[in-house]
Write a structure and sequence with these properties.
Oligomer: heterodimer
Shape of chain A: extended
Radius of gyration of chain B: 27 Å
Strand content of chain B: under 5%
Strand content of chain A: 5-15%
Largest interface: A-B, 130 and 139 residues
Largest sheet of chain B: none
Number of helices of chain B: 7
Largest sheet of chain A: 4 strands, antiparallel
Order of helices and strands of chain A: HEEEHEHHHHHHH
Helix content of chain A: 55-70%
Radius of gyration of chain A: 31 Å
Order of helices and strands of chain B: HHHHHHH
Number of strands of chain A: 4
Number of helices of chain A: 9
Structural class of chain B: mainly alpha
Number of strands of chain B: 0
Distance between the termini of chain B: 12 Å
Chain lengths: ~325, ~230
């Protein structure tokens, strides 16, 4: 047995021991409780003012005659289960959810598996990594299917099917939409031709469409929302007039405001000068570009600071998940006390 | 040549110019939306290509019994399970708006197998991976950041001002400053940095990017840049 395997076994045994101890003390750990709701709908046929039959769906009370029924489960804090048990130990309104509890433990395992990479690459990390690749690839395919293909493509080409099974409120599409979706289907099919061993050029046509549309969209969106909007914001009046509490002008705040506006204009122009590569950065242009570099360095420093803070916030959230949701060692939201 | 270069070139030019023109002519405004929908549908269909490539690579790994083929099996298994439960909307109840539509329900809740996978596998895995970067960013910064000139000092100083000014540490460190010097307190300094210097720097970067994107897009639409066709610029 090599040293790494021995270390993992020791860590695993110690950790499992601590979990057992934690599970047998206090309120235990890592359980999710749910309460269920019976949902039932009945079909009600009525007639409109013109005498045409219309169908409406009305929610019916529990035990009523219904055409469609299902159950919904919503998570409740463990405190609700403790209170319900204290009142009536045989209650069944709030119950332990095995699927969600198993999910919670799986999430804790995945979290620790990813963190284990801090020590060294290992089998747990590799397993978690493989899982994230498989799950996220399929996740985005499913989202693309239900959020794009069904409401756009299928709704245009087979509206009756979509109306019957997915979205009864679907409105009929016009001719332009139908043709654009038919074009999308043809181009999409041509795109899949890339999987075939021959006729690679067929896949270039939809790619050309994507390149052209992206170029057209990007010109409009970047010029409109970035170039124009940011340019206009910079061209606003530099002089700031800040009213004080008594309604008169607050001289100090106005001077600071004006100075801040001036610094923004100087910063934008000098940083843009730095991006001007068709002129040699010498003399006045060089000096201005140097000031621009200072501004850019401050911007990058701020971006770095925010990136670190964002990551640390995520780290804190993962620790909160482990210590609060899973191990029940802390209770900042008073979910158990 | 005609099939591989000329026709694709004209498809790109016509579709791009149509989008561009539709933004300026009111009766053609809906063209832009339709083209965007067409683009989104092609992109969604193209995800099948990605899936095909993923399956091909991992199946080859498994069949050859390459090193780590077990993990390729995990990729395939998790991919197929998520795909089947997601596309089939397995375990999803109808929506309250349309109880008669059997596939009309949402699958975001952890009640559904797809929602369960999202909540208990995808969220913890992806957020922990990003959280892990906190250690690496801090470690890389410790090794790489040296205040050896004015530019590096500005970057380092701003990062510290932002990090300290946005946390309680900043309040503790500079809270003793009197009111007349309150502008030098870290929490106020970080606000100034964000409102003035960061705004100016970001504005210049955004304007620069917009000009760059517009120029590159125009080169494509005018047929000057043909590198995307492959085989080099001609």
């Amino acid at each position: 047995m090599n040293r790494q395997r021995l270390t993992w076994i020791v860590i695993g045994v110690v950790f499992a021991g601590l979990l057992v101890v934690r599970g047998m003390t206090g309120q235990g750990l890592g359980r999710v409780y749910v309460q269920h709701e019976d949902v039932a709908y009945a079909k009600v046929e009525t007639k409109s003012a013109q005498g045409a039959p219309t169908v409406a769906w009305k929610r019916v009370a529990e035990g009523g005659v219904a055409d469609v029924r299902w159950q919904e489960w919503s998570a409740v804090p463990p405190k609700a289960w403790f209170e319900a048990q204290a009142k009536d130990p045989r209650q069944s309104a709030i119950t332990l959810s095995w699927p969600r509890t198993i999910g919670l433990w799986l999430a804790a395992f995945f979290t620790l598996a990813i963190f284990s990479f801090l020590w060294a690459d290992n089998v747990f990390y590799k397993f978690a990594e493989a899982t994230v690749v498989g799950v996220s690839a399929a996740y985005w395919m499913v989202i693309g299917f239900w959020d794009t293909l069904v409401p756009k493509l299928f709704a245009a080409l087979v509206p009756a099917v979509v109306q019957a099974h997915v979205q009864p409120s679907l409105r009929p599409v016009d001719d332009v939409q139908w043709w654009s979706m038919a074009l999308a289907l043809v181009l999409g099919g041509m795109m899949l031709w890339r999987l075939a061993p021959r006729g690679g050029w067929i896949g270039a046509w939809p790619l050309a469409f994507i390149v052209g549309v992206t170029a057209g969209l990007k010109i409009v969106s970047h010029v409109e929302s970035d170039l124009m909007a940011q340019g206009l914001a910079t061209m606003e009046s530099v002089v700031a007039v800040v009213p004080g509490a008594d309604g008169a002008t607050d001289v100090g705040a106005s001077v600071w405001g004006t100075l801040a506006n001036l610094l923004v204009v100087v910063g934008v122009l000098s940083a843009l000068t730095y991006f001007l590569f068709s002129v040699e950065h010498k003399g006045l242009v060089g000096g201005t570009a140097r000031v621009g570099v200072w501004y850019l360095m401050i911007t990058f420093g701020a971006a770095f600071g925010f990136t670190v803070m964002g990551r640390i916030a995520l780290l804190a959230a993962r620790f909160e998940f482990l210590f609060d949701d899973w191990l029940w060692l802390i209770d900042p939201n008073h979910l158990r006390a | 040549m005609v099939l591989t270069r000329l026709i694709p070139l004209w498809i790109a030019i016509v579709s791009g110019v149509a989008i561009l023109v539709s933004a300026f002519i009111r009766p053609m405004e809906s063209w832009g939306e339709n083209f965007t929908d067409t683009f989104n549908v092609i992109a969604a269909i193209a995800s099948v290509l990605g899936a095909g490539s993923l399956l091909k690579a991992n199946l080859a790994k498994v069949s050859r019994r390459d090193a780590g083929w077990g993990f390729a099996l995990v990729v395939l298994g998790t991919f197929l399970i998520t795909l089947v439960v997601g596309l089939g909307k397995i375990g999803v109840h109808p929506s309250h708006d349309f109880p008669q539509a059997d596939f009309g329900g949402k699958q975001e809740s952890a009640d559904t197998p797809f929602g369960w996978i999202y909540e208990f596998a995808m969220v913890p895995l992806t957020s922990t991976m990003f959280a892990l970067l906190a250690f690496y960013v801090a470690s890389a910064a410790f090794r790489a950041f040296r205040a050896k000139n004015l530019e590096a000092s500005l970057l380092l100083g701003t990062a510290f001002v932002i990090l300290l000014g946005r946390t309680f540490a900043g309040v503790v460190l500079t809270g003793w400053l009197p009111d007349w010097a309150s502008g030098l307190r870290l929490e106020n300094l970080s606000v100034y940095v964000m409102q003035v210097f960061n705004t100016a720097g970001n504005r210049a970067i955004i304007i620069g990017i917009a000009l760059g994107v517009a120029a590159t897009s125009l080169r494509i639409l005018l047929g000057v840049d043909r590198s995307w066709l492959g085989g080099g610029e001609r």
